[in-house]
Amino acid sequence: MRYSNTGKSKENGVVYTPSQMADYLASEILMYGKEAFENRIDILDPAVGGGELLISMIQAIKQKTDCSIMAVGYETDEDVCQETYERIKKLFPDVIVDIRNEDFLEAVENCTAGIFDFVIANPPYVRTQIMGSDKAQIIAEKLSLTGKIDIYYAFLVYTKNVLKDKGVAGYITSNKVLTIKSGASVRNYMLENYQLHRITDLGDTKLFAASVLPCILVFSLGETENGSEVKYTSVYETNDNVEFCPVGDIFDAIYKEGYYQLPNEKKYKYQQGTLQSVEKDSLWNLLSDDIQKWLKKVDERTWLHFSDIGKIRVGIKTTADNVFIGPEWTGEKENLEWLKPLITHRNAAQILPNTNELWQVLYTHTAQDGKKKVLEIDEYPKTKAYLLQHYEQLSGRNYVTKANRKWYEIWVPQDPSAWEHRKIVFRDISEKPQFWLDESKAVVNGDCYWIDIYPEVFEETVYLALAIANSKFIEKYYDIKFNTKLYSGKRRYMTQYVEQFPIPYYNNETAKKIILIVKEIIVKNDPKNVLDYKDELDALVDELFS
């Protein structure tokens, strides 16, 4: 191995870059940066760490030209600065090396002149909750970014301050930036200020020791206009039963399409295409010819979306689960006045809920005249006595009291009147979709989402939606449209994705068959029936959209 620290984690969210990834990124930058070659080439790594990226960049340049090179890096650890300087100088004595013991974001905040031909970076993955809300807010305001802020957003934005007109930048980031709602502001910024060249989504390839799902962005100054074809590569682990071609490492097949297997027997599906959309607020997903045709066909057969049948909400957040929720309400906790049945991830299943583990919640709110109202504790002696046992913990929730809320309230109770409505509940994170119908008037916990079905929506439409939401079709639709798998093939079923799920018209023969099956399953209320009809329902849903 060229680097002794490959895969080593560093403080502040930094992860050292594997050599294969560094070499690939350097080659991609040069592919789009041929016009940058002049008498001297200036390169920058704004979060240099051990220097892996600079080393790869220097090597790639030396294979293309004999221009002189200046390599600049920013690093906040003084000891690392010296080590990195010595490593690079030893490898490349003729290169001018300047490793600066400074914070890149502070150093270039007011810079307006392009300095560097190439920027290559693997910035730290530090989320808002780690860096602190105050610092995150300052960064967000400075950069005019909205939503939750990851610090690498700032690196992406500030690259504009230092990149030459003909320069090219290449970044390794978390692939969350491609599709999460909070990443929309930085995606919009990049579309408006940079010409995107290539996106490489390396998904669950596990190239880092840390739990980072990486992607690579290559761009230059300018604007990504409508009609721009941004090259897009996607690599994800797969269990598809197909023939696999052997490769030495992930990057051996990076420009190919198909199925490939590594020496460690991991199997991956490689897809090539372009960015689906460069519209403002769009998700950054892969579009191939086959995908384009398939999505067009789905759109042609779509009548409604899930957003049309109900309001999608997240469950309650008590901020004191040990007090308010649990499976055992016996002894002195028995028969408390405010107890309600609670749906949790333990009940997750397809069409019908799993009823093996039933929990309850001490729910502190009610609806009065259409408005949310906290219950008066003095009117309920058993509940009052129980909650007083936990007074210190509950009253210590400063955010509750600062909001002029009563000390015993649930922090996020949602709409108390909505529990009376029929709803489709689904788990937040799961490998397979798990959507089920609830008519029990139970409260939904914060580890699940739920669709508060509009009263005017036909029963047939609800049954059809249940079949679609739990189908293999929707797994394919999710992966193509949103492409946000986590490790181990798990998906995030969030509002912004689920609300886009398609529903065809319910009054055709195929839809009628589906509705009858789902209705029978619900009426019989036997989970075995779900398994018995699973394959048939999957086939019928495919038929609906084909």
Please describe what this structure looks like.
- By secondary structure, the chain is α/β, with parallel strands linked by helices.
- It has 2 domains: 11-223, Rossmann fold, CATH 3.40.50; 309-544, no CATH class.
- The protein contains 19 helices and 26 strands.
- The strands form 6 sheets. Strands 1, 2, 3, 4, 5, 6, 7, 8, 9, 10, 11 and 12 form a 12-stranded mixed beta sheet that branches.
- A hairpin with a 5-residue loop joins β10 (258-261) and β11.
- α1 packs across α2 (52-64).
Record keyword descriptors for this entry.
32% helix; 12-stranded mixed beta sheet; alpha/beta; 4-stranded antiparallel beta sheet; 26 strands; 2 domains; 23% strand; 546 residues; Rossmann fold; disordered N terminus
Radius of gyration: 27 Å
- Secondary structure class reads alpha/beta
Q: Specify the overall morphology.
A: globular
Helix content: 25-40%
Distance between the termini: 50 Å
Poorly predicted runs are 1-13, 128-132
Q: How many runs of DSSP E, i.e. beta strands?
A: 26
**Main sheet: strands, sense, barrel:** 12 strands, mixed
**Beta fraction:** 15-25%
Q: Provide the domain count.
A: 2
Number of helices: 19
Q: Would you tell me the overall average pLDDT? A: 89
